[in-house]
Amino acid sequence: MLDAQFKAMLDAAKQAAQPSLESLPVDMGRAIYRSLRTDGDVTYHGQVRDLQVAGAAGPIGARLYTPKDAPASGPGLIFYHGGGFVIGDLESHDGLCRQLAEASGVRVLAVDYRLAPEAKFPAGHEDAVSAANWAFEHAAEIGFDTAHVAVGGDSAGGNLAASTAITLRDQGRYKLAFQLLLYPVVQFTGETESMRKLSEGYFLTKKGMDWFTACLFGDGDKAHPQASVLLHPSLEGLPPALVVTAGFDPLKDEGRAYAEKLTVAGVTVEHREYARFIHGFYNMAGISPAVAPVVQETAAALKAALA
């Protein structure tokens, strides 16, 4: 069954006939998403510092979360926010990054990559890789131990994390220790059973995904393996991964499929599915009290993976 609080939220949104993101101007959609802030009360005792990192076409924004009592050099997570590659930013995921840093003791570097439709594929993916390389190159400056660095993200950010892990493997300069893939989108060409069954009424919709995809690619190649990582011909040699899916998420089948394909390729994978949740739940601890324990579980997995 769907979590009662999420059901109440979705029912209220339907009753209010709220406009869908794809029906709004992009700037308005971004502003609404940024203002939602449904992560509830966030306790964080560490430091937060805004900085700039190297993007593929010039400097881009980033935010470093350093937990209280963190050692001078310790494990680090390079985090890419979700939002369909179109919306989302450092502010929309500030609460989640604080929670992950607080609960895990791991430094988090959130990356403000370029968004579509202004910057279509592969701009955001190239920014993600550039930022990851920057993090390794400036590890001493930001307190990252290069032997214990992970990439992670939610939804579109999970896609960027998975894609970056593949690219860094191929570049051979730096070795990641872990992938944290939270309900990732991993393909843009096929239609899964979960996308058909959960196409509307559960926060993320098929129409919304089609709009995000059109913004991201325009007339470009949606099957390109840098974006549709589920179609990548070689997943061998990638770092261990935690793949999280949600029971009422249209993306759950492709997330499962990616976890299975990683496993077949010899990658150590743990797949966790939260059956009562919807897409985007990591940012919704203020709506359902059932989310906070899951964030804690995820942070514990991150901590253990980077120990």
List the helices and strands and how they pair.
Layout: H1 4-15, H2 26-36, E1 47-55, E2 58-66, E3 74-80, H3 94-104, E4 107-111, H4 123-137, H5 139-142, E5 144-154, H6 156-171, E6 178-182, H7 193-197, H8 206-217, E7 241-248, H9 252-264, E8 269-278, H10 291-305
Parallel strand pairs: 3-4, 3-5, 5-6, 6-7, 7-8
Antiparallel strand pairs: 1-2, 2-4
Helix pairs in contact: 3-10, 4-6
Plain-language structure description:
- It is a single chain.
- By secondary structure, this protein is α/β, with parallel strands linked by helices.
- The chain has a single domain, classed as Alpha/Beta hydrolase fold, catalytic domain (Rossmann fold), CATH 3.40.50.
- The protein is 37% helix and 21% strand.
- Helix 3 links the parallel strand 3 and strand 4.
- Helix 3 crosses helix 10 and helix 4 packs across helix 6.
Brief overview, please?
This protein is an alpha/beta fold. The chain has helices at residues 4-15, 26-36, 94-104, 123-137, 139-142, 156-171, 193-197, 206-217, 252-264, 291-305, and strands at 47-55, 58-66, 74-80, 107-111, 144-154, 178-182, 241-248, 269-278.
Which short descriptors sum up this protein?
37% helix; eight-stranded mixed beta sheet; alpha/beta; 307 residues; globular; Rossmann fold
Tally of separate domains: 1
What is the CATH homologous superfamily assignment?
Alpha/Beta hydrolase fold, catalytic domain
- For this structure, the CATH topology is Rossmann fold
Poorly predicted regions are none
CATH class annotation: Alpha Beta
User: What is the overall pLDDT average?
Assistant: 97
